[in-house]
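Translate sequence into structure tokens.
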Amino acid sequence: MMLTVTDVVEYAFCAKFSYYSLVLGLKQYEEKRGTVKAGRLLHQKHETTNRNYAPPQFSGKKIVGYRYYSKQLNLSGKIDEAIETKDEIILVERKYSDYYELKDTLKVQLGLLSILIEENTGKAVRKAHIIFIKKKRIIKNFKIDKAVKDYALRALNETKKVVLTGIMPSSEFDNRCLNCCFRKICPTGSLNIAE
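Result follows.
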């Protein structure tokens, strides 16, 4: 089974999320969520306008909306943008969010996308330029090192384990449960949320 980077990012968000979507095949109906709609519109806009524009601090060939595959990892992932220089490729990711920390989900996404790019191009990916856009525009640069890539590979292997075993993983209740699309059927979320 070919997984996507998004599948693994969802595992990093909550292991049970992967169980519901990948094992049970339940839909999350994310197209109904306002922030998801806004984020998709943001990505569509940037995929179709200024396709050749690169941030001024980077010079090189711009790659937009490209999907990479790995037969070795059974994984695919689509980048927002990247800048290919003669020595490396710099990831450019856009997030419709005001939270601009390198959380587990973003770490997994950057790590797996960098591995896919490196495998397909033979060029190193050592940094990411993340543009957070919601109320205000904040730009952060993140270093992508071996630790980030190893963390992402562990999350990939754990996601595969959930799919292969079909066993519901454990999780703990926290603020993510409050807005989870599976909260009404999840034993962790449903037992803690009064609706």
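Note: The domain at 3-13+34-166 is CATH 3.90.320.10 (Lambda Exonuclease; Chain A).
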